[in-house]
Design a protein that fits this description.
- The structure is a single chain.
- It contains one helix and 20 strands.
- The longest helix is centred in the first third of the chain and has 19 residues, at about 5-20.
- Strands 1-8-5-2 form a four-stranded antiparallel beta sheet, with no helix packed on it. Strands 7-6-9-10 form a four-stranded antiparallel beta sheet, with no helix packed on it. The protein has a four-stranded antiparallel beta sheet with strand order 17-16-19-20, with no helix packed on it.
- It is mainly beta.
- Strand 9 and strand 10 form a beta hairpin.
- It folds into two domains: about 25-150, Sandwich (Immunoglobulin-like); about 195-290, Immunoglobulin-like.
């Protein structure tokens, strides 16, 4: 391969790699930080998705930074240098973005940007998000809460966040790069709603398929998805599986006619009905008597 062509290919590959990693790159290293406490906050908070240029106060030679979302500022003490990773989660506990910055030297300010997109480069919907920042060696962590298009100073938001303990959190709000927040929003984390399931059939407490009786498997999910019901005999063998979609807004049901997956009527005995879906993970019991 000619040397000129080889250099051209290497140059193209380098540019492509730079483009691919740009959204996860360190925005900038700021001025020296002489403090002993780790500091982390984001601004603006609350924010909306859209191009913006923000003034920064500890950026060294830089005086502003551009983003489509929010800026995350860290003050890293000299004793806390090491790998820094920011993982951003939705209120459902889904990991939407990982920002991995490798090893950072302590004793400096750092600025990062999150443009409000996920790891698939898609813009996330407006909602509350939280970021777990891990830093230093041995590892330590801190949590930030992002108000993406929702909430604001003096407002209260109530969210079921399954991965966080119920409670009330004061979320600092900022328009710019200021150590002291402009105000506070209140985030109330309530317990995750629990769905319901039931298994009812047979006037005498058991189901007799020979009389046309059926078992009704009722459900009320906490959100959209699919309800899956698996029926096992008393030896733990799967005899039938059924499913139904749900939008989570109202209850529904499945009907079991006492037949297995081959269409044969099952034997008399005790059967376990496992029901799983959004907010539901439970097992019920029924008796088949022929």
């Amino acid at each position: 391969m000619p040397d000129r062509l080889r250099k051209l290919i290497v140059g193209v590959v380098f540019v492509l790699l730079a483009i691919a990693s740009a959204s996860d790159a360190l925005a900038l290293t700021g001025s020296v930080y002489a403090g002993s406490s780790f500091v982390a906050y984001n601004f603006p908070n609350q924010f909306s998705i859209g191009s913006k240029t923000l003034a920064i106060v500890n950026g060294g030679a830089a005086v502003s930074i551009a983003t489509n979302g929010t800026v995350i500022k860290l003050a890293l003490p000299s004793s806390k240098g090491g790998p820094v990773t920011i993982k951003i989660y939705s209120v459902l506990g889904q990991l939407v973005r990982i920002l991995d910055f490798g090893n950072l030297t302590g004793g400096a300010y750092y600025y990062f940007t999150w443009d409000g997109d996920n790891d698939g480069s898609q813009t996330v919907t407006s909602d509350v998000y939280y970021a777990i920042i891990t830093y230093a060696s041995p590892q330590e962590s801190a949590t930030l809460y992002f108000l993406d298009g929702v909430g604001g100073a003096g407002q209260t938001l109530t969210k079921p966040i399954p991965t966080l303990a119920p409670g009330t959190i004061s979320v600092p709000t900022r328009a710019g790069d200021t150590a002291n927040p402009d105000g506070t929003a209140i985030l109330v984390i309530r317990g995750t709603a629990t769905g319901e399931a039931s298994a009812v059939g047979g006037a005498k407490g058991y189901v007799n398929p020979a009389k046309g009786e059926k078992l009704t498997i009722g459900f009320k999910a906490t959100g959209p998805g699919t309800i899956v019901s698996k029926i096992f005999d008393n030896r733990g063998r799967l005899v039938r599986e059924m499913s139904a979609p749900t939008d989570g807004s109202q209850g529904g049901s499945l009907q079991w006619d006492g037949r297995d997956s081959a269409g044969n009527t099952v034997s008399s005995g005790v059967y376990l009905i496992h029901v799983e879906g959004p907010g539901i993970n439970t097992t019920k019991r029924t008796v088949i008597l022929r």
